[in-house]
Design a protein that fits this description.
single chain; elongated; 434 Repressor (Amino-terminal Domain); coiled coil; Lambda_DNA-bd_dom_sf; about 70% helix; mainly alpha; 7 helices
Length: about 130
């Protein structure tokens, strides 16, 4: 029987902050607190919703990116962009993997909104058909 380990929100915040090349002090100033508070937050498994929203805004990512952050996904993106061929040129990652995660989130959000709109239109059409009977 396997148990699913809950996401460690504080660790996710720390890793995203590091990927953004931001120090704890800078994040603290951005959300109106001190460095010690950021250190405590990054050591916490959970963070209250309001604080999480402020942190997400300061880091420039949606809250869902913090909740669902996966280092494995970042390394997969980086690994898939590295050419391990015999050329002498290092074709390393030329973009921030975190930006790719955010971009993917935004694309999925748009698709989801389009699906919701299509379902609303179907419901409206069915209601119209029912009214005619």
């Amino acid at each position: 029987m396997s148990t699913v380990k809950p996401k460690h929100i504080g660790r996710n915040i720390s890793r995203i902050r590091e990927l953004r090349d931001m120090k704890q002090e800078a994040l603290a100033i951005a959300i109106g607190t001190n460095q010690q508070s950021i250190s405590i937050i990054e050591g916490s498994e959970s963070v209250d919703e309001e604080k999480l929203k402020k942190i997400a805004q300061a880091l420039g990512v949606p809250v869902e990116v913090i909740r669902n952050f996966s280092e494995e996904a970042v390394f997969n993106i980086m690994g898939n962009t590295y050419d391990n061929g015999s050329s002498s040129v290092n074709h390393g990652c030329t973009f921030n993997p975190l930006d790719k995660l955010i971009e993917s989130y935004e694309e999925n959000k748009k698709l989801y909104q389009q699906l919701i709109q299509a379902e609303k239109e179907k419901v409206a059409l069915l209601e119209k058909l029912l009214d005619k009977k």
